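From the shared-data thread, chain only:
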Amino acid sequence: MNNFQLINPNVDLAKGNDLSASQKVFVNHWSEVYFGTLATSQDIDQAPVHWRLFLRDANGFVSHVALTEFRIEVDGREQKTAAVGGLLTAQDAMGKGYANQLMDVAEEFFSTS
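Structure, as tokens:
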């Protein structure tokens, strides 16, 4: 997966929780706005985050998605899939298709890696 080249130059790929300071600020702020302080301040059992995608515009980060990779078996064949979590878009950036763009990149990422 490390050889994946992002088509969209405005999308940043981060592995797990290896985030820049500005990425952490974005995730923590919007997680608190949407999910409340309980989600960001308590030790809640969550699936591990393997990958994160961040979408930027001219003013900074506008959307984020966290991805957890799984391997499942279907009809005797192992398949790679992912769980989606933390799909966040800044309130002033909503309605512009940013979350859709991130989901398109996530689909491409998992189908080509």
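The domain at 11-112 is CATH 3.40.630.30 (Aminopeptidase).
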